[in-house]
Design goal:
Mean pLDDT of chain A: 90
CATH architecture of chain B: Up-down Bundle
Number of domains of chain B: 1
Mean pLDDT of chain B: 92
InterPro entries (chain A): Hemerythrin-like
Largest sheet of chain A: none
Helix content of chain B: over 70%
Organism (chain A): Aromatoleum anaerobium
Number of domains of chain A: 1
Protein name (chain A): Hemerythrin domain-containing protein
Strand content of chain A: under 5%
Pfam families (chain A): Hemerythrin
Number of strands of chain B: 0
Shape of chain B: globular
Number of strands of chain A: 0
Number of helices of chain A: 5
Largest sheet of chain B: none
Order of helices and strands of chain B: HHHHHHHHHHHHHH
Distance between the termini of chain B: 38 Å
Structural class of chain A: mainly alpha
Keywords (chain B): Membrane, Transmembrane, Transmembrane helix
Number of helices of chain B: 14
Oligomer: heterodimer
CATH architecture of chain A: Up-down Bundle
């Protein structure tokens, strides 16, 4: 099934795994590896946000006419997560393991409650509203990853 | 705009006090359960003693339902896009109704008092009625594209059935209704355990386990069919109970136990494949919860095979205290600091990070106290020693006291940050 919900949820899981790789390295005090893994995670997260903010959300907004609805909420949460990621970067730069663990935990729950809203509510709405648009190939290209099985 | 469009925003989320009032009340009922063990140590002799019935409902209604209802006010908008209308007012009614209803019910059961049982029927009847109507209203037009929003609906239905059966039981006991007690008890236990709590735990786990513990997803076939099969098996089992087909009833009970076991084993297997290198407190809590569920199921099977009073008591302790209480506590430790963080940052204040709001150390201490209390409780049920039961009572009071203190600590950190 290559609908929007499946594709984008799959990308969420892929970001989660990158998050865990950075967390593992940093918790073991491998700062160089941890920094590199964190940057990889941040790049992946940004790619995902961009796919939504530049492709998915505008299409949803133009088809439904809803610009003040769920997409606005999701954009706001993207901004919160970008702030959280900066605090993680800062903790890594200071080599502060405890602070990193706390900031990472904060991002994780922020990110997961956001993902729950998207996967359970917004993406299914997108699948219903944008059925004729054939967006998954465009999204896959932007995400630059293998399409979800 | 539909309800779903608005429900995702922070503005639609309930105030911090809405879920928190439930979360802070629940440990008090838990501690009260410890007090009952301390004062009435002969109650673990059988599941039918008035004390055991009171104890079960202090945990199931006073603790579990308080947190489940409090959490549903918070998570229905997030996982199902359903905002409960007038959440603050509804939460006020449900909170007061549940607390007074749970207190009346446990006193009515423990002391064998018909007036208290009748009061419990009225109070809990209103509570469930208001909550289910409000949640149903919020859910009425939201999409059901995923397993979790669908299974949450099943769980609400299961709770409705369990509550109706429970009210019928209270009326039988207070002499207001004439129905076969043993049959209604069996149905009430089945629906409360699996139809309500079990379905809610599973529906929540489908999203919570993979997301927060970064494990692979649950197999699609499990999330797609588990709740449907469990509901269908429960309905068939209920019919067999009512018709008195004891062989069919036994076979269906085994099927229900197998379904519960499949859920618990799958969860443990997923957790063993977590990408997080260090299991956090919530993961540990879930591992304990699932192991206790499996052990509890084995005790249920043993209770069918061997006629000894200890098996059902052990099953009850393992499933309620070891299974549900542990899993609930594990999730609570994720929800509460996050809500504190969310309300602070949405109010434009600098929010301390999750681990500053809720340090790991005290949480670990509480979970250890909980595991020790559980172990001593099991030994108490097996040995029947009054001294061990009293010790278990003290430990249960201690563990819920630590939970209460940990929740207050988050609230304290929240207040300091808010006033900074």
């Amino acid at each position: 099934m290559n609908d929007i919900t499946t594709l984008m949820s799959h990308d969420h899981r892929s970001c989660d795994e990158s998050f865990a790789r950075a967390e593992t390295a940093i918790s073991r005090g491998k700062w160089d590896e941890g920094t590199a893994e964190l940057e990889k995670f941040i790049a992946e997260l940004e790619t995902h946000f961009t796919a939504e903010e530049s492709i998915l959300f505008p299409r949803f907004e133009s088809v439904t006419g809803m610009t003040e609805g769920p997409t606005k909420v999701m954009r706001g949460e993207h901004a919160d997560m970008r702030d959280a990621v900066e605090r993680m970067r800062d903790a890594v730069a200071r080599r502060d393991k405890d602070d990193y663990a706390g900031e990472a935990e904060t991002l994780l729950i922020l990110m997961q409650q956001h993902n729950m809203k998207e996967e359970n509510v917004l993406y299914p709405m997108c699948d219903a509203q944008l059925a004729g648009e054939n967006l998954p190939p465009t999204l896959t290209k932007q995400l630059g990853r293998e399409q979800a099985a | 705009m539909t309800a779903a469009d608005l429900s995702l925003s922070y503005e639609a989320a309930p105030t911090f006090s809405t879920p928190l009032r439930f979360f802070l009340t629940a440990p008090l009922f838990g501690a009260l359960a410890g007090g009952v063990l301390l004062l009435v140590p002969d109650l673990l002799g059988s599941r039918w003693t008035p004390g055991a019935l009171a104890l079960t409902h202090l945990i199931a209604v006073g603790f579990m339902l308080n947190i489940m209802f409090g959490a549903l006010f918070q998570i229905l908008p997030v996982v199902a896009g359903a905002a409960i209308p007038n959440a603050r007012v509804v939460a006020g009614i449900v909170h007061v109704g549940l607390a007074t209803g749970a207190a009346s019910l446990t006193w009515g059961l423990g002391a064998g008092s018909p007036p208290f049982l009748t009061a419990a029927v009225v109070l809990l009847g209103i509570t469930f009625g208001v909550f289910l109507v409000a949640a149903g209203y919020g859910l009425r037009r939201t999409p059901i594209a995923q397993a979790t929003p669908r299974d949450l609906r099943f769980a609400l239905l299961g709770f409705g059935i369990a509550a109706t059966l429970g009210m019928a039981l209270a009326m039988i006991l207070s002499g207001g209704l004439s129905l076969p007690l043993a049959t209604v008890v069996k149905l009430h236990v089945g629906w409360a355990w699996l139809g309500g709590s079990g379905l809610l735990l599973a529906a929540t786990s489908w999203v919570v386990v993979p997301m927060f513990q970064i494990t692979p997803n649950y197999p699609a076939r499990l999330t797609r069919y588990w709740a449907l099969l469990t509901c269908a098996a429960l309905v068939a089992w209920s019919a067999a109970v009512l018709a008195g087909f004891s062989l069919l009833e036994f076979i269906l009970a085994i099927a229900l136990a197998a379904l519960s076991g499949a859920f618990a084993i799958t969860t443990l297997r997923l957790q063993s494949r977590s990408r997080r290198s260090v299991p956090d407190n919530t993961t540990r809590a879930f591992q304990l919860a699932m192991s206790c569920m499996i052990a509890g199921l084995l005790c249920i099977v043993a209770a069918h095979r061997f006629d000894h009073d200890a098996w059902p008591v052990l099953a009850g302790i393992l499933i309620l205290h070891g299974g549900f209480v542990t899993a609930i506590v594990g999730m609570l430790y994720k929800i509460v600091p996050f809500l504190a963080w969310l309300h602070l940052s949405q109010a434009g204040m600098k929010a301390p990070n999750m681990k500053k709001l809720q340090p790991d150390g005290p949480v670990r201490k509480h979970l250890i106290a909980h595991a020790v209390a559980l172990t001593v409780l099991l030994i108490a049920a097996l040995s029947g020693s009054t001294l061990v039961v009293r010790a278990a009572g003290v430990l249960v009071m201690l563990e819920f006291g630590l939970l209460f203190a940990n929740l207050l600590r988050v609230l304290g950190a929240y207040r300091i940050a808010r006033n900074a």
